[in-house]
Write a structure and sequence with these properties.
eight-stranded mixed β-sheet, Heat Shock Protein 90, Rossmann fold, 21 strands, alpha+beta, Ribosomal Protein S5, domain 2, globular
Length: 637
């Protein structure tokens, strides 16, 4: 090995767009469905940047019949003259040179969502072909690229247009050799993000069309993020009618905030920087939250609602039941890490706090009835927080969980290495009994629960912590809950929900997922939550038995059997009626089982679904059932 050849010839230099095709995940995250749709957003971001600069009013996005996508805007149009540094047209430069665009040096755009400046060229690199048409100065300019970004039709004038017509139209066809999983665009994914962009850019009209199905949606919100809050709250009951709205600009940093309280117990806060969602928050969110706590405390004291000897309201108290959208436009944003999930600019914190504090204080003074309701809700939350603190004491580890059968429930595994340990949450004592005998005692722990746990969507933290089943889970997980949550203390790398494959099992799984989403969300975000897939059928032919998880797998397997093979199909019973060997072979054995990892691609959509299905409001849930009843494929009767 020491004598193996290694010199300058072994160092590969990738030129032009080759680096993008070689390592696409570095530029678009992945080559899965998510990465495919990211191509659309890279082109749309360029149109949005024109809107942010004040030059674009309409954007059209069309999924064409052949599977390509067209993005059309009425902005200024990409410059077409020869670029002084590259010697080729500026359009060709933008689409063939990485880090070429109007987003560097502050000349083209003060604020930009496409922060890396590589969007157009990356889309070109990962497409079979790209066509760009620029309307500018009375001329229609056209250029075409193919085979991963090579120019096959240099820029030329193909017609004339009116002098007042400007803009850029881009059509691209994703390369199936890059996107091997799928090249089919999902209309619902596009629709969700387009709606979000329209909310964040008030007055901007975005039209989404699908020529494959003739679907069409038009999004334009003159109220901007005020309408965003109303949309998020549509399945909730607001405690005050007027949505508080704040906007201001200092030192070229623009801050917009809209908020409304509802009668729920969860805080729903979404923050954005230059139209990019920041799920981990950052300085813009910190500034607004700090100001919110300070202003509500001041108002409560000044109006004698909060007495002299009362403890001040905490941040969690004043945010209970809030729905808040924060949108910051920052000239040179600095994000922590490569994922653009947390804003790091320290100067934004002060600006956000200052702008929000002035306007929100005025809102409370001008809406005294609303202010009183908000403060009283926060004070009720404070009382519940004190009760929750007492209840939380019961969930803390007292000397660790070294013994098995914790509280007569948890059957722990012998391994203390969290990275190889997993905990099965099983419904019912009989299923737990089989699971205990069918498990690997070194790495697999079993925690039985009795039926359906508390629906945490309808309960405050103190009620959650008073529930014995939930307390047991919190103690077993080891992470703590609420302000004490620490994912580094997680005792099992995989938390596996194992319920029967019927309606009751699905309901129990949904209740558990609601608990994890509301109080242990990082466990979902970091991929620790799974759902076991017990088989629905067994197929016996000769001495062989094949277990399958659904009808599709059953039919696929039967198709592989010789024509005259005799077989018997059995409908599997519940987990509690399986013997330990069956449970191990079908659902628990690492080599044989099927697990579904619970993922959260879109926090806003996930929040909407949990609120719709598990919240207090009955009417939206009834409508959802009516609208989707005919789509049900498997229903136990």
């Amino acid at each position: 090995m020491n004598n193996e050849h290694y010199d300058a010839s072994d160092i590969q230099v990738l030129e032009g767009l080759e680096a993008v095709r070689k390592r696409p995940g570095m530029y678009i995250g992945s080559t899965s469905e998510k990465g495919l749709h990211h191509l659309v957003w890279e082109i749309v971001d360029n149109a949005i940047d024109e809107a942010l600069a004040g030059y674009c009013d309409d954007i059209e996005i069309t999924v064409n019949k052949d599977g390509s996508v067209t993005v059309k805007d009425d902005g200024r149009g990409i410059p077409v003259e020869i670029h002084p540094k590259t010697g080729i047209s500026t359009v060709e430069t933008v689409y063939t040179v990485l880090h070429a665009g109007g987003k560097f040096g502050g000349g083209g755009y003060k604020v930009s969502g496409g922060l890396h400046g590589v969007g157009a060229s990356v889309v070109n690199a990962l497409s079979k072909w790209v066509e760009v048409t620029v309307y500018k100065e009375g001329k229609v300019n056209y250029i075409k690229f193919a085979n991963g970004g090579h120019t096959v039709q240099p820029l030329k004038v193909i017609g004339e247009c009116s002098l007042d017509r400007t803009g850029t139209t881009v059509t691209f066809m994703p390369d199936e050799s890059i996107f091997r999983e799928t090249t089919t665009f999902n209309y619902d994914i596009l629709k969700t993000r387009v709606r979000e962009l329209a909310f964040l850019n008030k007055g901007l009209r975005i039209i989404l069309m699908d020529d494959r199905t003739n679907q069409k949606d038009v999004f334009v919100y003159e109220g901007g993020i005020k309408e965003f809050v109303a949309y998020v709250n549509k399945n909730r009951s607001p405690i005050h009618q007027d949505i508080a709205y704040v906007e201001g600009i200092e030192n070229d940093i623009s801050i917009e905030v809209a908020l409304q309280y509802n009668d729920g117990y969860n805080a729903t806060v979404y923050s954005f920087v230059n139209n990019i969602i920041t799920p981990e928050g950052g300085t813009h969110e910190d500034g607004v939250k700090l100001a919110l706590t300070r202003i509500i405390n001041n108002y409560a004291k000044n109006n004698k609602i909060l007495k002299e000897n009362d403890d001040p309201l905490s941040g969690d108290d004043v945010r209970e039941g809030i729905t808040m959208i924060i949108s910051a436009k920052v000239p040179e944003p600095q994000f922590e890490g490569q994922t653009k999930t947390k804003l790091g600019n320290s100067e934004v914190r002060k600006v956000a706090a200052s702008i929000f504090a002035k306007s929100f204080e005025r809102f409370l003074m001008e809406h005294p009835n609303d202010a009183k309701l908000i403060v009283e809700k926060a004070m009720t939350a404070a009382r519940a927080r004190i009760a929750a603190r007492r209840a939380r004491e019961l969930t803390r580890r007292k000397g660790g969980l070294e013994v098995t059968n914790f509280w007569g429930k948890l059957t722990d595994c012998s391994s203390k290495d969290a990275t190889i340990s997993e905990m099965f949450i099983v419904e019912g004592d009989s299923a737990a009994g089989s699971a205990k005998m069918g498990r690997d005692p070194i790495t697999q722990a079993i925690l039985p629960i009795r039926g359906k746990i508390l629906n945490v969507e309808k309960a405050r933290l103190d009620k959650v912590l008073a529930n014995e089943e939930i307390r047991t889970m919190i103690t077993a997980l080891g992470t703590g809950i609420g302000e004490e949550f620490d994912i580094s203390k997680l005792r099992y790398y995989k938390i596996i929900i194992m319920t029967d494959a019927d309606v009751d099992g699905a309901h129990i799984r949904t209740l558990l997922l609601t608990l994890f989403y509301r109080y242990f969300r990082p466990l979902i975000e970091e991929g620790h939550i799974y759902a076991a897939q017990p088989p629905l059928y067994s197929i016996k032919h000769g001495k062989n038995i094949k277990y399958v998880i659904d009808e599709n797998e059953r039919d696929s397997y039967l198709a592989t059997l010789p024509e005259n093979t005799k077989y018997e199909i059995g409908r599997m019973k519940g987990l509690g009626e399986m013997n330990p060997e069956e449970l191990r072979e079908t659902t628990m054995g690492i080599e044989l089982r099927t697990l579904k990892q619970i993922k959260m691609e879109d926090a806003i959509q996930a929040d909407e679904i949990f609120q719709l299905l598990m919240g207090e409001e009955v009417e939206p849930r009834r409508k959802f059932i009516e609208d989707n009843a005919l789509n049900v494929l498997n229903l136990d009767v």
